[in-house]
Amino acid sequence: MAHDVARPAVALVTGGGRGLGWGIARAFGRSGARVCVTDINAAELAECAADLAADGADALVLQSDVADLAATQAVVRQVVERWGKLDVVVHNAVYMPLITFDATTPAEWQRQLDVGLGGMFNCAHAVWPQMKAQGGGHIIGIASGSSFRGYHEEIAYCTIKHGVEGFVKALSLESAGYNIAVNTVGPGALIKPTRLTRAEAAALPEEVRAGWADPVELGKAFVWLAAQPPRRINGHRLDAGPIVRTLAAEGPDFAFAPEKVTLYPDDFRARQAWYDNYTG
Length: 280
What we know:
Layout: E1 10-14, H1 19-30, E2 34-39, H2 42-55, E3 59-63, H3 69-83, E4 88-91, H4 106-116, H5 118-134, E5 137-142, H6 155-175, E6 180-186, H7 198-202, H8 206-209, H9 215-226, E7 237-239, H10 240-250, H11 265-277
Parallel strand pairs: 1-2, 1-4, 2-3, 4-5, 5-6, 6-7
């Protein structure tokens, strides 16, 4: 029998110490989900824990590196031991220095790939047996404009984001049979630059910070996606901004159209046509 994830009860968010990951974690906590947050930055993780506690969320915070498969597997075990299952994994963690190709050493290149792309594999690999055993779930990566385009000083980051989309497209063909949805969600709005720490962001002028979307509001899009039956949306790239606007205008049971959930509706339709006609 398929596992009912109509209202996700347990979510894991990596890289949740700040920024979008922090907003996603709080949105899940406020929705009533039990949420585990991981990060490598102990200080920012502690701040996130305090925010989740202030929200009244049932939360678990763990210092962990997504580039380490064994550590990621240990996180999944702790979540399942505590709450009995794991419905949603959001791989948000990324390492993103803005450097030229000349400045990108082999070690620097590898570290970025290990966190951003390797972390996506590690999260999926770690949760795969649990989601298969419980009858389903959601695995969500983070998309961006770099998923489709190239940008200056983002050699590794653009490679990672393009790679995550390929991972999603391919794994979704296998995951469908297990009632596991694999998708990506981009912010779909201007957010705090990923590389900035909490302290660095707070030091910027108010007029700069005022232009950033509230990551907790954007997190509602992840909560909405995770509440969908896994077979409904699988293998796609969505965007939080359009989803949040649609939720505000029409509510969670809105009549679905690609334009309501992504900045790239043509890509959504092209992927769906491929899946509908793919025979292996």
